UniProtKB/TrEMBL annotation:
Span of domain VOC: 1-126
SUPFAM superfamilies, per database record: Glyoxalase/Bleomycin resistance protein/Dihydroxybiphenyl dioxygenase
Name of the protein described by the UniProt record: Glyoxalase
Matching CDD domains: VOC_like
Naturally occurring in which organism (per UniProt): Ciceribacter naphthalenivorans
Domain of life: Bacteria
Pfam family, one: Glyoxalase
Amino acid sequence: MLDHVGLSVSDYANSKAFYDAVMPSIGAECVMAMTAEETGGTYEGSGYGLAGKPSFWIGSGDHSKGQVHIAFTAPSRAAVDAFYAAAIAAGARDNGGPGLRPHYHPDYYAAFVLDPDGHNIEAVCHTPE
């Protein structure tokens, strides 16, 4: 249903460094970046995704008020573990380490961190092992 989603971040360079370090753990990468010169103003943004299609964007601008929750699909439980480790190493705060969340369904394996702006970022795998 969704094509892409974007977050305004308070410190674009800091958030870009964070997501550049974290996204490869789930197989994603920065596939497009926009400079202020290209946008004709002050907006800078980076789009992360798979196979060249950006589906998650961060960008400069008025920072969102309140916490946003974004859940990324991970291809395996090991990728969820790698996502969590990469995020913590990149400065995220723990918001729920890797593990099963059977209250959602028996194979719901996820990890939650708070990104540099305090957004609740999750990696989730829905398959057994």
